[in-house]
Amino acid sequence: MLKQTQTFLRRNRANIAIGAGLLGSIYVGANYVLGKLTDAKNRMATDRIAKENLRRRFEQNQEDCSFTVLALLPTATERILELLPVEQLTHQLQEKKAARLAKSGAPSEVSFSALSMKDDDGMSVRSLKSEPPPLQSSAGPKKTKAQLWNELKITSITRAYTLIYTLALLCFLTRIQLNLLGRRNYLSSVISLAERDTESPIALENNETNPQLSQEDYDVNRKYLTFSWWLLHRGWRKLLSVVEVSVKQVFGPLNPRDDISMAQLRDLTMQIRKTVEGDADFSWLPFLLPPAGDEDLVLREAGVIPEHVSSSGVSVFGSSAPLHRLLDETSDLIDSPPGRDVLNQLFEAGFAVLLEEKLAEQAFKVVVMPMPGVGQDGRVQEVVEVPPDAKTKVANVLAVVTRQAHLIGNGIPNEYLKAMEKQPDLTGFSAIIYSNFDMSKALPTME
């Protein structure tokens, strides 16, 4: 038996060798393939985790943008309301009415809240009163009733429209700033993990949600965010002056006693918007960021750098290359065609809430009807259709606009901001900023 086996092996040793080699190759090949499949599976899992982490960070970043806008907006709102005191004008009109009542023999102690809704010319006085208490009349030459109504007309519309523009610009700028910094911080955490030579994916838990920044990066981020100071203290003033001139031209000829239709109101508003927003090449940059050379002024006025540092002749802004890069990219995004398109959508959304919802319901008394189906936010859709022949007094429009100004600037929740944030192009624009991993721009300073 042994001899036969040896004979068989001698005769077939070539075939056996070939078979053994083939089996070995198959084994090695199978292990190689299995190893590659395992690596691919691990890479896919890592990529999936990384993408999910990036998505969650991005969504959190957009929520942070909303809270930031609501936190910053009152700074500009307070100054706009102080500069355009519609309530003070209303109070003066109420004083004149009280004086006429006294002359006519009516009781002298009549509170303003008890005054008739209709003045002798048919215009509403009390309806123009909004939530904040009326301001005291300012000293100066007495104005006629017609002068007060005309000033109230221009002031109330200018105030509300300026607040819509300011809110939209602040929403736009905040999205750019926080998404640029979100991308920067994300890459900083990636580099930090790579330098530690770890193979673990970037997690969202523990310290990875808020990666530890170096002191230099923290200072750069803080100074960069400070540049919203320009819009909140200077930009809105430039904007208000433009809006006011346009409002005087468009609404100036209207008498508060005149009837006005929704179509006329839309047309007048569009005339103002065309004047304010300009053509396709119009730049919003001067309203959002300081001109070249005024960067240190912003940092000083905002209290980021001490007075003695800024007056020493050394530019804090000029000596910070990372801050330079962030502001340069911000300027490019503001003036980019996609950026202008997004801003236009934000303006559209804000004015739509004021005209098509608030004025339609409160001035034109249109009943809101539910539509079948649900919107993107999961709520039942609603439609407001103003009949072509529906009209209201200009004074009624002013009353609604006066009240809405406070809700545009201080409303919580803010319906105007919510409408702006629902614009799909805003989310897309933010996503492009956040995911644009151009290493020359996005990486933290490596000097």
Description:
The chain crosses the membrane at residues 16-34. This is Peroxin-3. This protein has 447 residues and is mainly alpha-helical. The protein has one domain. The chain is 66% helix and 4% strand. It contains 16 helices and four strands. It has helices spanning 2-11, 13-83, 86-103, 145-195, 215-225, 229-251, 262-277, 285-288, 295-301, 307-310, 321-335, 337-362, 394-410, 415-421, 424-435, 439-442; strands spanning 259-261, 369-374, 380-383, 391-393. The strands form two sheets. A two-stranded antiparallel sheet has the order 1-4. Strand 2 and strand 3 (380-383) form a beta hairpin. Helix 4 (145-195) runs parallel beside helix 13 (394-410) and helix 12 crosses helix 13. The longest helix has 71 residues, at 13-83. The chain is elongated, with a radius of gyration of 33 Å. The model is unreliable at 108-124, 130-138, 199-209 and 442-447 (pLDDT under 50).
Tell how many strands the DSSP assignment holds: 4
- By helix and strand content, what is the structural category? mainly alpha
Average residue-wise pLDDT: 79
N-to-C SSE string, H for helix and E for strand: HHHHHHEHHHHHHEEEHHHH
Q: Give a short account of the largest sheet.
A: 2 strands, antiparallel
Organism: Drechslerella stenobrocha 248
GO molecular function: protein-macromolecule adaptor activity
Protein name: Peroxin-3
GO cellular component, one term: peroxisomal membrane
